[in-house]
Amino acid sequence: xxxxxxxxxxxxxxxxxxxxxxxxxxxxxxxxxxxxxxxxxxxxxxxxxxxxxxxxxxxxxxxxxxxxxxxxxxxxxxxxxxxxxxxxxxxxxxxxxxxxxxxxxxxxxxxxxxxxxxxxxxxxxxxxxxxxxxxxxxxxxxxxxxxxxxxxxxxxxxxxxxxxxxxxxxxxxxxxxxxxxxxxxxxxxxxxxxxxxxxxxxxxxxxxxxxxxxxxxxxxxxxxxxxxxxxxxxxxxxxxxxxxxxxxxxxxxxxxxxxxxxxxxxxxxxxxxxxxxxxxxxxxxxxxxxxxxxxxxxxxxxxxxxxxxxxxxxxxxxxxxxxxxxxxxxxxxxxxxxxxxxxxxxxxxxxxxxxxxxxxxxxxxxxxxxxxxxxxxxxxxxxxxxxxxxxxxxxxxxxxxxxxxxxxxxxxxxxxxxxxxxxxxxxxxxxxxxxxxxxxxxxxxxxxxxxxxxxxxxxxxxxxxxxxxxxxxxxxxxxxxxxxxxxxxxxxxxxxxxxxxxxxxxxxxxxxxxxxxxxxxxxxxxxxxxxx
Length: 532
Ligand code: COA
Description:
By secondary structure, the chain is α/β, with parallel strands linked by helices. Helix content is 41%, strand content 17%. It has 3 domains: 1-38 and 274-435 and 498-532, Alpha-Beta Complex (2-enoyl-CoA Hydratase, Chain A, domain 1), CATH 3.90.226; 40-259, 2-enoyl-CoA Hydratase, Chain A, domain 1; 441-484, no CATH class. The chain starts with 12 loop residues before the first helix and ends in a 17-residue tail after the last helix. The mean pLDDT is 97. The structure holds coenzyme A. This is Acyl-CoA carboxylase subunit beta.
């Protein structure tokens, strides 16, 4: 074993201050998560309960095996927009009858569970996760369909929801729809395209057009039950496979359906693993509040991998990027973690080599971000930093082993790409509250804009207004800062959630377990042309 050492002194003033700053950020995060939990608010929750209905998360809880975790995804979807935080949809991974499943549940307390542009993004992301990891998809349905005022943003791309359901089915990934209420118009295709359908008596309403629309279209008089009730679909149309007497009966029947799926994981559970030697609580004090101050990512690795056991690869070369092998909850992982912030040519080449090794050995990769990007300057340009950065980006892009990304601190510029940012399709990507991500740091960006404006004024022979420049710089800096923050980025679905650093090992363990449902094989070749 190669157990990592630690230099963390929990009594030092720096550690304490950093811990305090992180706790303050976590308190802010909790307040935003509480908004997602509150859904449509007191009034609508009460009305929902008075109707004898369960809330979205209560439905999920009854569906899952008792005392098993639920890894909720994208809880901050819609943050910073005009829509309710959480985007009227709950998504996540949980265990049903011993099978890890991807669960989505409409929140009918938020605008009747209608889907807005962020709900759509969140649902599509959930489907992507189900696909990549071969997780059965269970949709707990009760929705007013498209959020009508924002229909232009969702009607056309929203067709992908139904396409995904049938593509999952075609790929042998089971889909189950449990209908608790409205599932009308386009929404009717959720049960319509699912492999298994359960409907709740006198609650499910599944029709292409409700009574008023039918009256308008054909003049026919009808009612909800005869057009789309559970009993009608179970006895007459055949759209419902199972008729549930109430919500709990529906969830019980959903569990029975999953129990009979014969859905098998590609890899056996590795069994219990030794926890890290150091207390994860200490992760709160490791990231400096000022991201310009570097920190040693080995301190993080030591608190997330099994037994703090880490075999570093090329420790003496390209030292601004730490690479090495470990196991996490028993699953082998190759880790790439930024150490000094900047990526130089050596780090880029080391990363490309390391990624190829992981592919040869079929080992998933974990990227721990704290980078300001690739080094700039004459010496580095002449040394081929573009070629070397491109090598790393090529390796990340064409790697076929599953990737996980955690944004701990900075994730700026092309460094975000090389470290497997969102566009590089990591299976999962999470951020710590201390993370920041943007094309570059706010100060640098404001400074660049100012230089460009100054040069433009000079080229036109105009005087430069220094006072206006200072005001503009301050404004731009503030704007970029707010757009770099994890809650803002999570709101836009650029990650799968902002997590407490102390939960990192657990979250990654749940992800690795989900990942090992699907078989994978590293790329033995098939990389693009490595520009040497
Ligand atoms: N788009 C935008 N807002 C919607 C909505 C939708 N599709 N469906 C409901 N809402 C809003 C309502 O306007 C209401 O807002 P308010 O409280 O500010 O007045 C709130 O959500 C709750 O709706 P309400 O009708 O009071 O709830 P309900 O539980 O009694 O009924 C529905 C829910 C979904 C059955 C009903 O609202 C409905 O039929 N909506 C329209 C469905 C539709 O035609 N969708 C288009 C399909 S593509």
